[in-house]
């Protein structure tokens, strides 16, 4: 495992603050490796999911609205003349426009919030001092060793078995 000595500074929320290596105080400034872009990708995926949910809600509302209009038209046709149907068409058009406008506003607000936070995240690149770099490399190695040890302990074939047979 070769960990490059190139680090990007990223600002995170106070809830995701990490402890400083020197003073152990929580810090909202976090150093990440350049290949660790998972956070940005997850953020974009979450935004795409939210937009998809808003679109589905809008389509569902439109479908329900059309069903209600069909039911009203079926009920109103024998009773009323063309005047009321024209009024209901105008009302439905204005209602559809307002729902569509509301959906567009939601999508725009989601994209604006994502783009505004993306412009604030201007990554700064650092190369750590050799001692701090070695501390990080050692920590990564310890994490990998602990993971391997856990896997070994969970494997029953790693332990010796009781001898079977006569002596």
UniProtKB/TrEMBL annotation:
User: Which residue ranges are recorded for the region named Disordered?
Assistant: 57-125, 146-167
This protein's name: DUF1742-domain-containing protein
Q: Which organism was this protein described from?
A: Aspergillus fumigatus (strain ATCC MYA-4609 / CBS 101355 / FGSC A1100 / Af293)
**Top-level taxonomic group:** Eukaryota
**Low complexity bias locations:** 110-120
UniProt signal peptide: none
Please name the taxonomic classification of the source.
Eukaryota, Fungi, Dikarya, Ascomycota, Pezizomycotina
Q: Where is the composition biased (Basic and acidic residues)?
A: 57-109
Q: Which GO biological-process labels does this protein carry? A: vacuolar transport
A Gene Ontology cellular component where this protein is annotated is: endosome
């Amino acid at each position: 495992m070769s960990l490059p000595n190139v680090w990007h500074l990223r600002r995170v929320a106070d809830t995701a603050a990490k402890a400083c290596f020197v003073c152990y105080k929580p810090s909202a400034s976090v150093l990440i490796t350049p290949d660790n872009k998972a956070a940005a990708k997850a953020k974009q995926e979450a935004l795409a999911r939210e937009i998809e949910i808003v679109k589905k809600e809008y389509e569902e509302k439109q479908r329900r609205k059309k069903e209600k209009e069909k039911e009203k038209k079926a009920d109103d046709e024998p009773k009323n003349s063309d005047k009321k149907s024209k009024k209901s068409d105008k009302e439905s058009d204005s209602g559809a426009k307002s729902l569509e406008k509301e959906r567009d506003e939601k999508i725009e607000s989601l994209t604006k919030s994502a783009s505004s936070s993306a412009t604030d995240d201007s990554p700064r690149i650092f190369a750590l001092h050799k001692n701090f770099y070695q501390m990080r490399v050692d920590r990564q190695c310890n994490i990998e060793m602990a993971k391997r040890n856990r896997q070994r302990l969970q494997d029953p074939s790693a332990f010796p078995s009781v001898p079977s047979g006569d002596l």
